[in-house]
Amino acid sequence: MKAQLRDIAFCVGLGLLLPTVACTSRSASTVQLAGTWRLISVSEEEEGQTGTWVKSNRSTFGSHPVGYLMYDGAGHVCAQLINTDRPKWKDNDVPTPEEARVALNGFGGYCGRYELHESDGYVIHIPEADVVPNEVGQRLRRDFTLRGNQLVLQAIERRATDGRLTKKVIVWERIK
Fold first, then answer.
1. Calpha distance 36→173 (Å, rounded)
2. Residue 71 shares a structural domain with residue 125
3. What is the pTM of this model?
């Protein structure tokens, strides 16, 4: 605890506590996730019958997804992704059951905490609020790669609708 306070004092003394920088020690992490990231692309692959991955013909978030990912320096994360190709409801206030199902299937979002495992190349998201109730409190692993101003997250998950495994590759760009 003393070392953490010393390191925080060191960062404050240097004026390094900026919204887009996670400074926690003098041997500061080379991975800087803190900040706001805008969604660039989402691609999905499905597990094939031979155990290989094949490009999915369907995309949860459509051909024009929009989203934001926010990490703060205190360990909080918030992610929102939406399929902008979803049809509008006929009634502005009350969707039909089918309209509600389509709207929900084209949206992903949660907020909670995160743990960075830099040396192993992954981050764990732990939702405290999630559009998918079963994910609240779960430890969602996201392998990451930083390429300049882009963050690539990759996750293997079980598709809620039919139970098959999918691999999602989500590319984010840091907002300046």
1. 8
2. yes
3. 0.74
DSSP class of 118 = G
The reply to whether 2 and 56 lie within a common domain is no
Q: Are 46 and 165 in contact (CB under 8 A)?
A: yes
Note down the domain range covering 76.
31-174
Q: Which residues of the chain have pLDDT under 50?
A: 1-28
Q: What is the pLDDT of residues 65-115, one digit of tens each?
A: 999 999 999 999 999 999 998 899 999 999 999 999 988 888 999 999 999
**Secondary structure class of 97 (helix, strand, coil):** helix
Instruction: Report the alpha-carbon distance of residue 172 to residue 113 in Å, rounded.
Output: 19
Please tell me whether residues 20 and 82 are part of one structural domain: no
Q: What CA–CA distances, in Å, run from 98 to 76, 84, 86, 136?
A: 34, 17, 12, 25
| DSSP element (H, E) containing 151 | strand 150-158
Clarify whether residues 64 and 151 are in a common domain: yes
How many Å apart are CA 88 and CA 94, to the nearest integer? 11
